[in-house]
């Protein structure tokens, strides 16, 4: 049975323990941002193909759908601090291998696909471990604000990473840029070697997990979501939104180079504008805290993201500045969307099942995105990249109106809506 409580008590002085881990992860995110920008620009400049860029995103997302739920179940059983350490080290090792391939001149496009696939697997273990650990280290009343400030700082890294990546690519070889991620990953590991992260009872158990138990845990995570009608509808909403907007992210470099006739610096400006928007949105959420009902803040954010994407696609070639503004708007609305939702989940889902629930939600939300990428590549090359931005943004905006009319979504954060979950998944 999944209970709605835990034996973990968050003590005073939580910030002193949480902050070093948080800062270490921000260093890691900076390195990952440099690698991501460098890889995307390399593929854009070498191929100029929408299909190649869509495929790169596709191989990055496939593990989320098929491996993510199992990774989340294992995170619930394993020591989460060790999971984050091994995930960071594994991602660094794979990235180092990519740097070696660039150094030797043996790099091929399929090598990049493999590296993206493996880095995603590492992230599938790291992300739910970090999210589940946050709810055990941060008091409930501070979760939304911590997420908002965290988003702001991450957005700051998104501002720095693209132009820094463009600068580094102009002065050092590609393998040098990629190698930076290895160093930042190690900086993320160091605090984890000394900080104690609380563990739920299941994670503290020495009982080995069997394939049967693992499968049972995965099914339990999905049943938990299905039983929580509000969470299920949110997952379906996220699935539709990811289907509409994921290709926009992967096709953005081609919009910049093809429609706006830009180069690496123009792409870095767009990416930095998105990061600047995330900073403002995160800080605004951190100060404001959102509407009294957190779900209203999330729906407001989704509507803003759809509007920003549509604006970016509608802007004529000679008005690149407005496209930058459109992407800044999408960045601003990102924390408004995610922060309140994660606060609801972290506060309402029992810590001992958070890993598999978060991973299952991710699998739900990403389920249709790989299909949209398979469709978006050929569609963009036939009808133009802008078409996907315009249609996706407008439909995303309309989905918010539908979601706002569903009572189970509006009541998702009310405690009585999950009071029967333990019985439902027993």
Describe this structure in words.
The longest helix has 34 residues, at 14-47. Helix 1 (14-47) packs antiparallel against helix 5 (109-137), helix 3 packs across helix 9 (211-227) and helix 4 (80-104) runs antiparallel to helix 5. The chain has a single domain (14-195, 209-424), classed as Growth Hormone, Chain: A (Up-down Bundle), CATH 1.20.1250.20. Helices cover 81% and strands 0% of the residues. The protein is globular, with a radius of gyration of 21 Å. By secondary structure, the protein is mainly alpha-helical. The protein has helices at 14-47, 50-66, 68-77, 80-104, 109-137, 143-171, 174-192, 201-204, 211-227, 229-259, 264-288, 294-314, 320-348, 354-366, 369-383, 385-404, 407-410, 421-424. Mean pLDDT is 82; it is low at 1-9 and 418-426.
Task: Show the helix and strand layout.
Elements: H1 14-47, H2 50-66, H3 68-77, H4 80-104, H5 109-137, H6 143-171, H7 174-192, H8 201-204, H9 211-227, H10 229-259, H11 264-288, H12 294-314, H13 320-348, H14 354-366, H15 369-383, H16 385-404, H17 407-410, H18 421-424
Question: Which key phrases capture this entry?
Answer:
18 helices, single chain, 426 residues, Growth Hormone, Chain: A, mainly alpha
Which segments are poorly predicted (pLDDT under 50) over 5 or more consecutive residues? 1-9, 418-426
Number of domains: 1
What name goes with the CATH superfamily? MFS general substrate transporter like domains
Judging from the principal axes of the Cα atoms, what is the shape?
globular
Counting helices, strands and paired strands, the structural category is: mainly alpha
How would you characterize the largest beta sheet?
A: none
Strand element count: 0
Cα radius of gyration in angstroms: 21 Å
Q: Would you state the CATH class? A: Mainly Alpha
Q: What is the percentage of strand-forming residues? A: under 5%
Q: How far apart, in Å, are the first and last alpha carbons?
A: 5 Å
- Give helix and strand order, one letter per element, not per position: HHHHHHHHHHHHHHHHHH
Reported by name, the CATH topology is Growth Hormone, Chain: A
Q: What is the CATH architecture annotation?
A: Up-down Bundle
Q: Give the helix level as a range of percent.
A: over 70%
Mean model confidence by pLDDT: 82
């Amino acid at each position: 049975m999944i209970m709605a409580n835990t034996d973990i008590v968050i003590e005073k002085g939580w910030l002193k323990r949480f902050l070093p881990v948080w800062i270490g992860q921000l260093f890691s995110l900076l390195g990952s941002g440099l690698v991501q920008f460098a890889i995307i620009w390399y593929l854009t400049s070498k191929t100029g193909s929408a299909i190649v860029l869509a495929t790169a995103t596709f191989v990055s997302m496939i593990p989320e759908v098929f491996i993510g739920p199992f990774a989340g179940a294992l995170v619930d059983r394993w020591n989460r601090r060790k999971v984050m350490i091994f995930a960071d080290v594994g991602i660094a090792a794979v990235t180092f291998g990519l740097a070696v391939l660039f150094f030797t001149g043996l790099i091929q496009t399929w090598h990049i696909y493999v590296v993206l696939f493996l880095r995603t697997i590492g992230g599938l273990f790291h992300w739910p471990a970090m999210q589940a650990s946050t709810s055990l280290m941060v008091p409930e009343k501070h979760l939304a604000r911590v997420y908002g400030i965290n988003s702001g700082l991450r957005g700051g890294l998104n501002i720095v990473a693209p132009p820094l990546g463009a600068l580094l690519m102009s002065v050092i070889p590609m393998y040098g840029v990629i190698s930076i991620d290895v160093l930042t990953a190690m900086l993320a590991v160091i605090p984890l070697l000394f900080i104690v992260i609380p563990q739920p009872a299941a994670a503290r158990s020495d009982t080995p997990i069997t394939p049967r138990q693992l499968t049972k845990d995965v099914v339990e995570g999905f049943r938990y979501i299905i039983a929580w009608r509000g969470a299920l509808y949110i997952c379906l909403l996220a699935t539709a939104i990811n289907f509409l907007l994921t290709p926009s992210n992967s096709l953005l470099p081609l919009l910049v180079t093809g429609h706006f006739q830009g180069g690496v610096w123009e792409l870095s400006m767009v990416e930095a504008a998105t990061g600047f928007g995330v900073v403002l949105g995160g800080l605004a959420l951190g100060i404001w805290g959102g509407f009294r009902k957190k779900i209203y803040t999330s729906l407001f954010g989704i509507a803003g993201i759809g509007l920003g994407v549509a604006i970016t696609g509608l802007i004529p070639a000679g008005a690149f500045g407005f496209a930058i503004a459109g992407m800044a708007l999408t960045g601003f609305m990102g924390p408004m969307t995610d922060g309140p939702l994660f606060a609801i989940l972290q506060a309402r889902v029992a810590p001992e099942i958070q890993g598999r629930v978060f991973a299952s939600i991710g699998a739900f939300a990403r389920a249709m995105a790989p299909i949209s990428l398979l469709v978006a590549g050929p569609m963009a090359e036939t009808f133009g990249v802008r078409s996907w931005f315009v249609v996706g943004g407008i439909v995303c905006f309309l989905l918010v109106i539908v979601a706002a009319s569903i009572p189970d979504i509006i009541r998702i954060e009310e405690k009585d809506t999950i009071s029967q979950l333990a019985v439902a998944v027993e």
